[in-house]
Structures are given as C-alpha cells and as structure tokens.
Amino acid sequence: MSKNPPDWWARAFGILGILIGLGGLVSTFFNNRWQRQVYEKSLEERIFVQLGGSYKFSSLVPAKEPEKPPKVELGVEIVNLGLQPMYLKNIIAEVGDHRATFYEHDTLDTTEPMRRLEPGEAANYKIDWPGSLTEDIDKARGRGIVEV
Fold first, then answer.
1. Taking a C-beta distance cutoff of 8 angstroms, is the pair 126, 91 a contact?
2. Which domain holds residue 21?
3. Dist. CA 22–CA 32, nearest whole Å
C-alpha cells in the first residue's frame, strides 16, 4: 500500500471536468440540430396571397339607377415572405364555377423571363370578372382558390 493519501481535490476537479465536457457535447448536439432547422426554414418559400373583388359603377348619382350593371374586378396580391427570391410561373384564381388567369409565363417564348419577386416584394394583378362576384362567392361558400 502507498503511504500517500488519495488527492480528493484532484479527483473532484477531474470528475467536474468530465461532466463539463459531456455537458458541452450534449449542448453542441442540440445547438447544431436547432441551427439546421433554422437554416432549412430560411430556405422555404413563404408567400402571402390576398384575393379581393370590387365593383365599378358607371353612374355616381345615387338617385338614379345605373344604366349598365356594375363592372366587377378581381384582384390578387402576392408578397414574398421568404428570404430567397421567388419566380412566378402562373397565377390562377378560382371562385365558384369561374376560373381566371392573372399571369401565365409563356414557356415557348425564351425572350420573356419569369416574373421574379425579391424578398419582401409584392406583385398586384387585376382582371375583369365575368358575371356577379357575390353569386360566385355564395356558390363557393365564401372561399376562393388562388394557385401560384
């Protein structure tokens, strides 16, 4: 047997060093996993799409009835909320039984580039809508579908 007593301070510091090292490995694992999730989310395409309709009357005098039925316009606003640029190929809206195309990229025309939306940029499109918008919305139960 050795006549030197065990050095408890050295053992305590050694065990503490091992525990700190293991804690660092565990925290590094979870930190890398979290950073990978944040990076993958930053590459996602996130867009905001808002569909709206408006009536344009031919007469502004409230006492008279308008000679023509009101003109209906349907508009769509698209905002790129992602961190990467986004290219629009086509924008199609469907309300009730009607389907309308706001923008469509011609794939055969090589001189026309696709519409590019930078991060935070918005694009607005309007078209004339055939028929009555309220009837179409009632048929669709208040919902419209926009395909981007």
1. no
2. 1-43
3. 16
Q: Is the domain of 38 the same as that of 101?
A: no
Q: Is the same domain home to 56 and 36? A: no
Q: How many domains does the chain have?
A: 2
30 Cβ neighbours under 8 A, 6+ residues apart = none
Q: What is the pTM of this model?
A: 0.62
The pLDDT tens digits along the chain (148 residues) read 567 777 888 999 999 999 999 999 999 999 999 999 988 888 888 888 888 877 776 655 665 665 666 778 888 899 998 888 888 888 888 777 778 888 888 888 878 888 888 998 999 988 887 766 666 666 666 566 777 7
DSSP category for residue 113: P
Six-digit token string for 7? 């050095």
